[in-house]
Amino acid sequence: MGNIAEDVQSRFENNKVKALINILYTAGWITNKQNAFFKPFGISPQQYNILRILKGAGVPLKAQTVKERMIERSPNATRLMDKLSSKKLIERLPCDHDRRVVYIHITKDGLSLLKEISTDLNMDFLEKLSEQEAGHLSDLLDKLR
């Protein structure tokens, strides 16, 4: 079991500071695990998020809507979509009545990649939490925000 004080070799002035450092440290730890997991698939966690948003919507979405729904709101979302488009995982569809609006649609290749990833998605670290603990953690994080 991890111990934030040992992991960062530090002491904390109080439990609130310790909790904040633990959240930031754990977020970085999860990001590193995700980056390593998605690397063989040729996409980033943020690109995976875009694909999941589009699949879940079931219809083409405005690019702005995709940006708003992202877990990690990124100023480079357009660049992320450019990369997905160049890999033929999404396609851009112009709006008929407003040329400033672009719709984003997941392609068959994008859906196939999601299906391949879903069979491999490894989140075994979550198994360390019971359903009750996970619910409590989620409630605490909601309270924090």
Automatic annotation (TrEMBL):
Domain named HTH marR-type is located at 1-145
Q: Which InterPro entries match?
A: HTH_MarR-typ (IPR000835), MarR/SlyA-like (IPR039422), WH-like_DNA-bd_sf (IPR036388), WH_DNA-bd_sf (IPR036390)
Q: What keywords does the record list, in alphabetical order?
A: DNA-binding
Does the keyword section mention DNA-binding? yes
GO BP annotations of the record are: response to stress
Q: GO MF terms on file?
A: DNA binding; DNA-binding transcription factor activity
Q: Which PANTHER family match?
A: TRANSCRIPTIONAL REGULATOR, MARR FAMILY (PTHR33164), TRANSCRIPTIONAL REPRESSOR MPRA (PTHR33164:SF101)
Q: What is this protein called?
A: DNA-binding transcriptional regulator, MarR family
